[in-house]
Amino acid sequence: MDWSKSQVEFMNKALEVANRGRGKVSPNPPVGCVLVKDGKVIAEGWHDHLGGLHAEQMAIHDAENNGHSPNGAIAYVTLEPCNHFGRTPPCTEALMWAGIKQVIIAHKDPNPTVRGAGIQALKEAGITVSNGLLEEQAASQMRPFLHWCENRRPLVCVKLAVDSNGSVDDRSEEAGRFTSEGCLDKVHELRRECDAILVGVNTVIRDNPFLTIRRVETNRQPLRIVIDPNHRTPKSSNLLTDGLETLVVDEDFRSLPALLNLLGDKEIQRLMVEGGPTTISHFLEQGLVDEFYLVQSSQTHQQPVPSNIDSKYLSNSGLKQVSSEHWGDEMVTIWNRQ
Asked: Which of 310, 229, 224 has its CA nearest to residue 272?
């Protein structure tokens, strides 16, 4: 379908608005909606938190609050509106009640509770419906949700920080971070977009991490997971004493596919692996990594602990570099499974 320049601009706006809900609404995906009337945006809405208004409902509410009637408007929505009762009433009914005349959708909803039922309900109500506008961009924004709908297991995201020579630790010093404050902020932003964080027991013993979201605003904390087949997690570790949920897995790394299936059943849609090279290598060797963030520091360790994970290793594991960016003082290469 040929889309006009203005239609593309309106859907881009809906995608931009959807980003306001990222990291806040899992297991739901981030969704945005703008209402357009007489060629102008009269309202916008997004899914902000679980149990809160969906994007379409918020946009209708926004229009009315600003003195605009949504009757006769066009709704640009990044995901097919739901047609079932969940934490909120169906969005299709809200659009019908508001008198929306046309709905343009970026991506269909593959969730079994929707799968075209929303589009069908709107059409049966006499509303003009079209879909596929900026579909790839919407798919990228909702990738963990779409991956979970298709595979019923979480998308696996790995973050690994190394020094100038590929080392992950300096045995000449006490355990500590060697990346910049700006980089740490970005790591916590990434954590906010994940439902669970996994490490191996060696990381717990060496670093005693919290694995929480602390440097950015959040309305939830991730599930923490420790792979510990030999029961070595210290009882006094932060993960076991801070009152937040931690899952200690007493099986070895051969259980990773089964663990991912279990997490999928818990509606964990994006798992962040922050463990050491051994843990990460097991995920890579079993073809379980979907995204990889390789953080390169300019520092040099005096007694290095080699990661043995570089661009060649990642390529051989089925990943392809898709972009690079700066996180504070560090350069980060981003890899995706193709």
From this structure: 224
Q: How far is 130 from 25, CA to CA, in rounded Å? A: 26
User: 274-323 pLDDT, tens per residue?
Assistant: 999 999 999 999 999 999 999 999 999 999 999 999 999 999 999 999 99
Helix runs in 27-101, H state only: 55-65, 91-98
* Cα–Cα nearest to 92, from 101, 103, 102, 83: 83
CA distance 24 to 87: 15
Using CA atoms, how far apart are residues 60 and 42, in angstroms rounded to an integer?
A: 9
Q: Quick check: is 135 catalytic? A: no
- Distance, in Å, from the CA atom of 77 to the CA atom of 138, rounded to the nearest integer, reads 10
What is the number of other CB atoms lying within 10 angstroms of the CB of residue 191? 24
- Please identify which of the residues 9, 16, 44, 56 carries the catalytic annotation: 56
> Strand, coil or helix: what is 196?
strand
CB within 8 A of 174, min separation 6: which ones?
A: none
Which two structure tokens, joined as six digits, stand for 154? 């979480």
Q: What is the pTM of this model?
A: 0.92
